[in-house]
């Protein structure tokens, strides 16, 4: 038993999961955004706006692009696009493990990679708009 | 509370009826295949599942194997699956079940015989997290002439008390889908006991335990299904402990990063 423990202390089984706290933090933050901010965004942009319940010109092209291509706009995209993407990626990765599809190391790269790529794209668009 | 339950549910020994219990039998000496066997017996409102198993063993079929000891939900030996849900036999009453009752050995553990499972892997995980007080730097060296006891305030006790009620019955391991997928996962009870000692003001072993908790097979394999907390017969709430453990593991990683 002691021998076995001694091997474990230095063996691959004792490898620390330094990446997991990062994915879990992004997942948690994304969960909060999903629950708190996204319903409000859907209410305003997807329900009130098409029904004409917002004041005229509240989200006109001029006003909307000014709001989006700014530092608050950058934070807004981070909260409603990027963090929820990582939340979804984390769930998909664990869901795939649960139904025994693929292997976890590859799934991790695919899921978090896709979330990172789409996040960079979304934030890049905002930055490009700010620099125009 | 117990008197209330008795009066409202009017439990008595008069309500006798005949019930059928199906037990999943596995006798490796005679057959490599498990099979179902049905038993019929008289029960009343006070008959626990453990009473029923004892009745089978003593009156109907002495070949049945199962574990039990205290019959009062403190030894944690009599865990079985009742209609697919992990339960303690002594804390489960047949009056709560209509129709057929199906008894199986605890899920996710290798079956040795009938309802007896091999819990070795659980005990290994338990040992790995060092579930005992570790005090590397006692405040004072031990003096046999004037021995000093550890002092703890009620507030310090309250921090970990709930997590200290674990009786190592293993029901949470049978409930955990992640342990079912990967038996290397330390699992609910071991992670909860690690958290219990990490929260104890007398303990200084957190650093040693965090290297176990912060593995992929440590807290990070948990997906917060929460069924462990539902089946726990002692209301320990392992799901809460494991997820508080994730916060601790994240802090541990941050500190390790800054210290290099």
Concise synopsis of the structure shown:
Chain B: Belongs to the succinate dehydrogenase/fumarate reductase iron-sulfur protein family. Chain A has 5 helices and no strands. Chain A is elongated.
Description of the structure:
The complex is a heterodimer of chains A (132) and B (260). Chain A is mainly alpha-helical and 132 residues long. Chain A has a single domain (26-131), classed as 3 helical TM bundles of succinate and fumarate reductases, CATH 1.20.1300.10. Chain A has helices spanning 2-10, 20-48, 61-68, 71-98, 104-131. Chain A is elongated, with a radius of gyration of 21 Å. In chain A, 16% of the residues are buried. Chain B is an alpha+beta fold and 260 residues long. Chain B has 2 domains: 9-117, Ubiquitin-like (UB roll), CATH 3.10.20; 120-259, Alpha-helical ferredoxin (Fumarate Reductase Iron-sulfur Protein, Chain B, domain 2). Chain B is built from 10 helices and 7 strands. Chain B has helices at 2-9, 49-60, 120-128, 154-160, 171-175, 177-181, 188-198, 206-213, 227-231, 238-259; strands at 17-25, 35-43, 79-82, 85-88, 101-104, 111-113, 116-117. In chain B, the strands form 2 sheets. A 5-stranded mixed β-sheet of chain B has the order 2-1-5-3-4. A two-stranded antiparallel ribbon of chain B has the order 6-7. In chain B, a hairpin with a 2-residue loop joins strand 3 (79-82) and strand 4. Classes of the chains: A mainly alpha (132), B alpha+beta (260). At the A-B interface, helix 2 and helix 4 of A face helix 10 of B. Chain B: It catalyses: a menaquinone + succinate = a menaquinol + fumarate. Chain B: Keywords: 2Fe-2S, 3Fe-4S, 4Fe-4S, Iron, Iron-sulfur, Metal-binding, Oxidoreductase, Tricarboxylic acid cycle. Chain B: Its cofactor is [4Fe-4S] cluster; [3Fe-4S] cluster; [2Fe-2S] cluster. Chain B: This is Fumarate reductase iron-sulfur subunit. Chain B: Residues 156-186 form the 4Fe-4S ferredoxin-type domain.
């Amino acid at each position: 038993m002691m021998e076995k423990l001694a091997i474990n202390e230095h063996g691959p089984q004792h490898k620390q999961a330094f990446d997991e706290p990062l994915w879990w933090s992004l997942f948690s933050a994304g969960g909060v955004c999903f629950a708190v901010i996204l319903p409000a965004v859907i209410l305003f942009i997807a329900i009130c706006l098409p029904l004409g319940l917002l004041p005229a010109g509240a989200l006109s092209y001029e006003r909307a692009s000014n709001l989006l291509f700014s530092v608050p706009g950058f934070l807004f995209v981070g909260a409603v696009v990027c963090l929820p993407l990582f939340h979804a990626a984390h769930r998909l990765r664990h869901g795939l493990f649960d139904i025994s599809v693929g292997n976890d190391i590859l799934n991790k790269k695919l899921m978090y990679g896709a979330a990172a790529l789409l996040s960079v794209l979304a934030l890049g668009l905002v930055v490009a708009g700010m620099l125009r | 509370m117990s008197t209330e339950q008795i009066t409202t549910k009017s439990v008595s020994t008069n309500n006798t009826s005949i019930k059928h219990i199906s037990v999943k039998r596995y006798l490796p000496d005679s057959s490599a295949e498990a099979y179902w066997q049905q038993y019929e017996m008289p029960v009343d409102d006070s008959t626990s599942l453990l009473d029923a198993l004892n009745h089978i063993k003593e009156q109907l079929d002495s070949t049945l194997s199962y574990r039990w000891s205290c019959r009062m939900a403190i030894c944690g030996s009599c865990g079985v699956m009742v209609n697919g849900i992990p339960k303690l036999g002594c804390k489960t009453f047949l009056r709560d079940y209509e129709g057929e009752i199906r008894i199986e050995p605890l899920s996710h553990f290798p079956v040795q015989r009938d309802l007896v499972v091999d819990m070795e892997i659980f005990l290994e995980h338990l040992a790995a997290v060092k579930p005992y007080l570790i005090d590397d730097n006692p405040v004072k060296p031990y003096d046999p002439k004037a021995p000093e006891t550890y002092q703890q305030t009620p507030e310090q006790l309250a921090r970990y008390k709930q997590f200290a009620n674990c009786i190592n019955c293993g029901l949470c391991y049978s409930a955990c889908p992640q342990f079912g997928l990967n038996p290397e996962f330390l699992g609910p009870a071991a992670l909860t006991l690690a958290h219990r000692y990490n929260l104890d003001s007398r303990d200084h072993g957190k650093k040693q335990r965090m290297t176990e908790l912060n593995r992929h097979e440590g807290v990070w394999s948990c997906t917060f299904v929460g069924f462990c907390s539902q089946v726990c017969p002692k209301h320990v709430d392992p799901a809460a402990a494991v997820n508080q453990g994730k916060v601790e593991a994240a802090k541990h990683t941050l500190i390790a990063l800054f210290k290099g």
